[in-house]
Fold this protein.
Amino acid sequence: MVKRAQDWIEVRPEGLYVRAGGFFVDPLRPVAKAVITHGHSDHARGGHAEVIATPETLAIMGLRLGEAAGGTRRPLPLGQRVRIGEVEVWLAPAGHVLGSAQVVLEYAGMRVVVSGDYKRASDPTCQAFEVVVCDVFVTEATFGLPVFRHPPAMAEIDRLLRSVRIFPERCHLIGAYSLGKAQRVIALLRAAGWERPIHLHGALQAMCALYGQYGVALGPLCPATLGSRETRSDLAGEIVIAPPGAIADRWARRLPDPVICLASGWMRVKQRARQRGVELPLVISDHADWDELLRTLDDVRAPEVWVTHGREEALVHAATQKGIRAQALALLGYEEEEG
């Protein structure tokens, strides 16, 4: 008789294994059957024989991984139920990036929700996080420390636009992760009234086009072409978005006196901004902050919480103080994203 989630879900070297269904959630190594929460590379890895995910996540994996994305790709739209082995599985919105989902597992009268990465803040580029009341909640803890309290994203965009007005002779170069962050920053700029073209590093163009295919309107975008001196000077007063790794390389130095910006929850830590040479840190995150993590624990009403990939100890302690049975899963191999 099943009494605990540990009787049918376990941590293996490959990742979180749902033994009653014969599949893994976000496995770190190639497996026979994988359910994937979203398209970031520390969750969506290639080489699986069968991949089950939202249609958007499958498209993202196809774009990023090509044929390595997996053998059989099985789309599972949000809210649609499917039986895998002895487990009923359905996906609920996670509010993280396009197509991101929480994996809801129902077996033997018990409901376990594997949240993947999530945020509670508004984001026009993906469906909002949906609260799913459950018996066990598996939560991330990327920003699981009280110091991480994200300001309103639109307030950070207002700071950016104020800087653009102050320095019309300079280009503003924003480092933003290619999946999710870049598109959210663009959408926020549009909401703030920026109607001019936004210039993109080549590494961002295909993902922004994919977002457009799924109905996310990003407005006029154009390549950040740096060929001639005249073209470079034309970018004065403009906004350019590039992957975080590009803001400090030779490519960036060809821009007209760029104001280096970086959009990340880690920009709350001033030392991180200084280390990366960021002149204008933008605290814009695609993950829940400390207060949102705690609010989510209250909302899902789970008597048991498993914490993974992040600051597990602090969140485990806070959950315990709320009377929740909490433990760290200690899954290995999840990389630190730009946040």
